[in-house]
Amino acid sequence: MATFRAWVVEKGEGGQSLTFRDFDEADLMEGDVTVRVTHSTLNYKDGLAMTGKSPVVRRFPMIPGIDFSGIVETSEHPAYKPGDAVVLTGWGVGETHLGAYAERARVKGDWLVPLPEGLSAAQAMAIGTAGYTAMLCLMALDHHGLKPEHGPALVTGASGGVGSVAVALLARAGWHVIASTGRDSEAEYLRGLGAAEILDRAELSGTPKPLAKERWAAAIDAVGSTTLANVLAMTRADGAVAACGLAQGMDLPTSVAPFILRGVSLLGINSVTTPQPKRREAWGRLARELDLDKLAAMTTTVGLSDVADLAEEILAGRTRGRTVVEVA
Ligand code: NDP
After folding, report:
1. What is the pLDDT of residues 269-324, one digit of tens each?
2. Closest CA to 125 of 33, 40, 5, 36
3. How many CB atoms lie within 10 A of CB 34?
4. What is the number of domains present in the chain?
5. Claim to verify: residue 242 and residue 153 sit in the same structural domain
6. How far is CA 183 from the centre of its chain?
7. Are residues 304 and 259 in the same domain?
8. Which of 60, 129, 205, 310 is the Cys-Cys partner for 11 at CB 3.0 to 4.6 Å?
């Protein structure tokens, strides 16, 4: 009987538990491609899944881990053959489908993308779901017609995973980047990624007014809640905010004022079920446009057996940038 090492979330009478144990390959879920996972990452959602702080796990037992890179072992999918290097983000992996914190994963070939040319498996996961989502945000702002000459771009939750990649991508695209953070200690780090200004996140935490002084033309928000409401109230006329996260909260205590009096647009970003053409476009742009030295500067690497120690840390906003999980 073939087994492999995996983190497993189980639900019992005492609530949710997380153990690192052998998992029987025969218990993997349905899929036409089996992958030897080499790298995964730590995302905010993985923190929620491992701790059970939010019900992201919808099936038990569950192997958490929402993204991976690896090598195809067996495939019945026409696009993939053994030995191919692949990347997966989203599609409910680590939530409804057995996930990435394991030496093996079996998934639908339609969910995979080939490892983008120019990126190693480790670099693809240094980007991971968070970095890929930052690119989807940038693409949404581009699609809206916004350009650096329209004014500054704000990034909230800037020291986190989405935020760090967003700062680097916007700076590289020529934007004057304002990085909002709650951590003074990360100012130098953020300037190193390309931030031109640092904004204390406390300035975005007060009770939001319907409208406030116009400060940026574009924003990428990983935080939600009161912060997003303030960001909208401070966005310049005809600007746009790409909203992807809820690190502060799910609520949005705003009014229609920014939309109807300033023509501000709120662009929703969902990375989980992005169709293939857009997915491949995003990965292609990441491979071409993300400065790999900056990616290295924002990346920490841990072993598979250590990832659970970081679950509470990421939820508390104490991790910086991106964390790669080395599986093999
Ligand atoms: P991280 O924890 O790495 O980053 C979140 C950052 O938000 C923190 O580093 C911190 O930055 C800031 N933050 C944390 N708590 C608070 C708070 N209470 N108030 C204000 N700011 C806070 O997470 P990720 O980058 O992995 O994910 C960011 C968000 O985006 C998450 O909510 C995640 O679920 C979401 N997401 C959504 C996706 C989608 O498809 N829509 C895909 C990927 C992520 P600082 O210390 O600099 O202030």
Report:
1. 999 999 999 999 999 999 999 999 999 999 999 999 999 999 999 999 999 999 99
2. 40
3. 18
4. 2
5. yes
6. 20
7. no
8. 60
For a mutational test of ligand 1's pocket, the pick from 139, 156, 244, i.e. the residue with the most ligand atoms closer than 8 A to its C-beta, is 244
Whether residues 32 and 137 share a domain: the answer is no
What CATH number does the domain containing 149 carry? 3.40.50.720
Rg of the Cα atoms in the chain: 20
Nearest ligand 1 atom to the CA of 318 is: 9
Domain around 37: 3-115+298-326
User: Whose CA is closest to atom 16 on ligand 1?
Assistant: 248
Same domain, 75 and 194: no
Which pLDDT tens digit goes with each residue over 4-31? 999 999 999 988 999 999 999 999 999 9
The answer to whether the bond into 61 is cis (omega within 30° of 0) is yes
Q: Which one of 43, 136, 154, 231 would you pick to mutate in the ligand 1 pocket, going by the greatest count of ligand atoms within 8 A of its CB? A: 43
Last residue of one domain, picked from the residues 248, 268, 288? 268
Task: Say if residue 148 is in the same domain as residue 190.
Answer: yes
Measured from the Cβ of residue 74, the count of other Cβ atoms closer than 10 Å reads 14
The ipTM value here is 0.99
Domain-located, residue 174: yes
Provide the CB-side half-sphere exposure for 127 (13 A, CA): 31
Tens digit of each residue's pLDDT (9 = 90 or more) over 175-186: 999 999 999 999
Q: Which residues does a 6 A CB cutoff place in the pocket of ligand 1?
A: 43-45, 129-130, 133, 157-163, 181-183, 201, 222-223, 227, 244-248, 269-272, 314, 317, 319
